[in-house]
Design goal:
Elements: E1 2-5, E2 12-15, H1 27-31, H2 33-46, E3 51-52, H3 53-60, H4 64-72, E4 81-82, E5 85-86, E6 93-94, H5 100-118
Parallel strand pairs: 3-4
Antiparallel strand pairs: 1-2, 5-6
Length: 119
C-alpha cells in the first residue's frame, strides 16, 4: 500500500497505479476535470519557459497520459509544452520511454544475460 499527497487539494490518499490513470491526484480531484484544467493553466501561466510533459507531471501530479488527453481534446494549449518525455531510466529528454543510450545498454544487458543462460 502506497500513500501520496494530492498535488491539487493536498489530501493524503491511497495511490494505486493504473495504466489509464497514474496521476498524483486523488480520485475526487481527478473526477473534476475543470479543476484539473484550471490547476494546469495556473501552473503553465506561472512557468512560461518550455516544459517537458514529465516535468509537468512532477510539479502538478497530472500524469503525462491525462495531460495528453487534455491536449488532444483542446482543453490545454500546447504553446510552451514540449511533447517529449523523460527516459524512465536516466531522465534524459526522449520521445520514447527509453533514450537511445539506455536502449543500447538494455539490449547489451539482455544479450549478455541470454549468453549466460545458454551456457
Amino acid at each position: 500500500m502506497r500513500f501520496e499527497t494530492c498535488k491539487l487539494c493536498r489530501k493524503i490518499f491511497e495511490f494505486k497505479y493504473e495504466y489509464s490513470n497514474d496521476s498524483l491526484l486523488c480520485r475526487e480531484c481527478m473526477m473534476n476535470e475543470a479543476k484539473v484544467v484550471a490547476h494546469l493553466e495556473r501552473f503553465l501561466n506561472n512557468n512560461k519557459s518550455d516544459l517537458v510533459r514529465a516535468r509537468i507531471y512532477k510539479k502538478t501530479g497530472v500524469s503525462t497520459r491525462y495531460l495528453q488527453h487534455l491536449i488532444n481534446d483542446g482543453k490545454i494549449k500546447v504553446d510552451n509544452i514540449i511533447l517529449e518525455s523523460l527516459c524512465i531510466n536516466c531522465g534524459a529528454v526522449t520521445t520514447d520511454q527509453l533514450c537511445d543510450k539506455c536502449k543500447l545498454d538494455l539490449k547489451y544487458e539482455i544479450s549478455e544475460w541470454n549468453k549466460t543462460l545458454l551456457i
